[in-house]
């Protein structure tokens, strides 16, 4: 049988940095500059553990709206990916 998903395609085994600036500008196009400022401020507070995950979730939905959560998730994943990559490149 062909077990899909177990083998990585050749040349695809390293993670690529995410263009977080592109994602930020997408978010800004959807919600405007002022809300984007609030959003990035919230993100910063959450990542520095100044607000709880439950508060963060509520505030994020209020700020970016439900329909843009996918963009928010992509940005968050991108930030985490980039941090992991920069850490792994320093060893």
How many helical stretches? 4
Give the helices and strands as they follow along the chain: HHHH
**How confident overall, as mean pLDDT?**
86
Instruction: Name the assembly state.
Output: single chain
- Radius of gyration based on Cα positions: 16 Å
**Quick one: overall form?**
globular
Number of strands: 0
Report the biggest beta sheet as strand number plus sense, adding barrel if it closes.
none
Q: Which percent bin holds the helix content?
A: 55-70%
Supply the number of structural domains: 1
**Would you identify the regions where 5 or more consecutive residues have pLDDT less than 50?**
6-13
β-strand amount: under 5%
Instruction: Please report the distance between the alpha carbons of the first and last residues.
Output: 39 Å
- Secondary-structure-derived class: mainly alpha
List descriptors.
91 residues, transcription coactivator activity, globular, Hfi1/Tada1, mainly alpha
Write the layout of secondary structure elements.
Layout: H1 20-31, H2 33-47, H3 53-64, H4 69-89
InterPro entries: Hfi1/Tada1
GO molecular function, one term: transcription coactivator activity
Can you summarize this structure?
The chain has 91 residues and is an all-alpha fold. The protein has helices at 20-31, 33-47, 53-64, 69-89.
Q: Your description of this structure?
A:
With about 90 residues, this protein is mostly helical. The chain has one domain (about 20-90). It is about 65% helix and about 0% strand. It is built from four helices and no strands. The protein has helices spanning about 20-30, 35-45, 55-65, 70-90. The model is unreliable at about 5-15 (pLDDT under 50).
């Amino acid at each position: 049988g062909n077990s899909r998903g177990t083998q990585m395609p050749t040349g695809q085994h390293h993670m690529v940095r995410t263009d977080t600036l592109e994602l930020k500008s997408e978010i800004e196009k959807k919600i405007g500059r002022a809300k984007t400022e609030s959003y990035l401020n919230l993100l910063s507070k959450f990542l520095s553990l100044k607000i709880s995950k439950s508060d963060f979730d509520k505030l994020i939905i209020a700020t970016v709206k439900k329909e843009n959560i996918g963009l928010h998730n992509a940005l968050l994943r991108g930030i985490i990916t980039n941090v992991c990559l920069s850490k792994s490149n320093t060893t």
